[in-house]
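Objective 1b. Sequence-to-structure analysis of SDR family NAD(P)-dependent oxidoreductase.
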Amino acid sequence: MNENTTSGQKVAIVTGGASGLGYAVVEKFVQNGIRTIVIGRNQEKLDAAKEAFGDLCSTISFDLSNLQGIPELVRSIANEFGRIDILVNNAGINMKKPFTEVTDEDFQKIILTNVTAIFSLSREVVNVMLPQKQGAIVNISSMASQYGIPKVIAYTASKSAIEGMTRAMAVELSPEGIRVNCVAPGFIATDMSAKALNNDPERKNKVLSRTPMGKLGVPADVADAVYFYATEGAKYVTGTVLPVDGGNSIGF
């Protein structure tokens, strides 16, 4: 069944949608008849996504750390597609370094991409959504904001900020018909994570032993949660953070 508005087809933006969790979200949206614009930096991956998802998928090559270009980016999307119903802020970068070795530049780089760019993009998209009197924004956080993980201080700071922003945005925007929620994935089996864990059996055992469900999630688990938040099933849900982690964040 297509998720359609009264004026026709829904239009979604998914950042970082050409790989990993974002790719699974785009797949879920397209399967459900949502026209989806994928924003990413890797042209090769964008082309592959476009080929895989067909006519309902459009791709834009854009580096979201270019804050000055974001207003024009959103304007051009709104002009081309006529509306924006859903924004999924999925794009983000990580850096693994001992706390004392993280430079100011390192820290600022993560904050720029993972927080400031999301703020700027959301602000511009909200300006499109406000006259529509409806919209859904889904932010992607991480288990790093739920509890302490070593060697990812900047990433942790960024994802904690995203959860706070989710609540602040929800309180301000929900009276205007715009819902804002957040998904916090746990250990999800992607190419990247599988490689990391398979090369480190001790870490893999630790992950599985403190995950009550005893297994890794799959990208579709995260996509299902994002789709719920983005569509009518969650029409009375705003300002929440949903861990999709097999119980990891409450496990012992």
